C-alpha cells in the first residue's frame, strides 16, 4: 500500500474529501459573498498566494483580536498562523491600536520623520543592539537594500544563500542547488536575468560548501536566516554560525542575518539570544505589531565603509527606497511595539506556551507511532511529517508532504485551529491561552488518530 509520511494515500484522500466538504457546508455566507465579490480579482483573490491555502475556497475574515480570528460565518477560530508572523504578538495589540488611533488624525505619510521615529530608533538599538538603522515597508525590501549595501562596500556581485531558503521576493537570490550547482528556481514568473551570475546556493550546515563558494572571491555577502524556516524547519548545528562568521570575515564577504521569522527566538531575535555578529541585520513582519514595516541595521564598521562609498557615489537614484516607507504611522506602531509589546514578559509567555504546544504535539506523534518530529524556535513550532532532525535544504524538501499536510491543515481548521499554509508552522502570541493550545493539541491528536486509524 502506497504511503506518504507513514499514512496510506487512500486514507489521506478520503479524509481530505470529507474535511473539504465539511468546511464548505459550514460556510454558506462566505460562499455567497465570494460568488458576488471575488470576480473583480485575477483568479478571484486579491493576492495570488491566497489561492495556496488548502481550503476549497478562502475564509473571509470578519474580525480578529489577540489570538482569535472570526470568519464571515461566525466561526471563532484559534489563530496559530498569525499572519505568518506579521501578527506574532497577537492581532491588534492594545498599545499598537492606541498608537494607530492617535496618529490617524495627524497625517499618514509625509516623507519626514517624527518624534516617534527618534524614540523608535533608540528602542531599536536597545532591543537589537548597536546598529545604524533604516526603515523599509517589507522584509523583502530590507533584504534588497542590504544586498545593495553589501555589493557597494565589497565591489562584488554575488550573494551566497542556502538551498531551500526564502528571503522574500528578492529576485537576485531565487536560486537553488542541484548536484552541487546553482540554478534558478523553477516556477519564477517572467524570469529573464541569469540568476547564476548574481547568486550562489550553498548547503545549510555545510561549511565546506560555503568555503568553496567564497573561494571564488566574488561573493559580496552571505544572506541567511539563523534557522532555515521556509522549507521544513532546519536548525543550525553547533558551530555552524561561528563558522559562517569566520568564513565571511576571512573571505571579505558581509554576513547578513535575516531575522524575519526567527524574531520568534526571544528578545532581540536569534542574534541576541545566541550572540550572532551580523554585519547587517534585517527583520520585518511583526516588528511594528502588524503595520507593514521592516528594519535593517548596519554594524558600525559596515556603516563606516558604506559612508565612504556613499560620499564618492555619483549623483542620481540609489536604487533603495519606496515612497511610503518610514511614514509616521509605521513609527507610531513601531515605537509602541518595541516599548510595550516586544517585552521580556511577553516573550516569556510565548516561550512557555510554545513549549507546552511542542510537548503536546510530540506526545500525539509518539502515541500513533508516526515517523514524524516536532521542532521549535522560541514561539515558533512546527511538526514535520518525516523523521528528524533535518540537516539541510535537500532533506527539508524531501520532508515536505504537500497532500498530507493540506489534509491535516483542513482537519485542524474544521476543529477550530488555523495554522500557517505552505508549512506546518504554529506561532504562540502573548495573547494565546493554554486552553487554545490544548484545543489545538487535542485536534491534532484526533486528526492523527483518523489518519493512522488507531
Ligand atoms: N525573510 C524571510 C526569512 C521570510 O520568511 C520572508 C517572508 N516569508 C521575508 C524575508 C519577506 O517578507 P515580506 O514578504 O514581508 O517582504
UniProtKB/TrEMBL annotation:
Top-rank lineage group of the source organism: Bacteria
PANTHER family: GLUTAMATE-1-SEMIALDEHYDE 2,1-AMINOMUTASE (PTHR43713), GLUTAMATE-1-SEMIALDEHYDE 2,1-AMINOMUTASE 1, CHLOROPLASTIC-RELATED (PTHR43713:SF3)
Full protein name: Aspartate aminotransferase family protein
Entry GO MF terms: pyridoxal phosphate binding; transaminase activity
Family assignment from sequence similarity: Belongs to the class-III pyridoxal-phosphate-dependent aminotransferase family.
Keywords in alphabetical order: Aminotransferase, Pyridoxal phosphate, Transferase
Cofactor: pyridoxal 5'-phosphate
InterPro entries in the cross-refs: Aminotrans_3, PyrdxlP-dep_Trfase, PyrdxlP-dep_Trfase_major, PyrdxlP-dep_Trfase_small
